[in-house]
Amino acid sequence: MAAEILIAPSILSSDFSRLGEEIAAVDRAGADWIHLDVMDGHFVPNITFGPPIVAAVRKASVKFFDAHLMIEPADPYLDAFAEAGCEGITVHAEACRHLDRTLQRIRALGCKAGVALNPATSETAIEHVLDRLDLVLVMTVNPGFGGQSFIPAMLEKVARVRAMIGTRDIRLQVDGGVSPETIGDLARAGADCFVAGSAIYRGGSEAAYRQNIEALRAAVVA
Ligand SMILES: O=C(CO)[C@@H](O)[C@H](O)COP(=O)(O)O
Question: Which residues are responsible for catalysis (predicted)?
Answer without folding.
Answer: 37 (proton acceptor), 175 (proton donor)
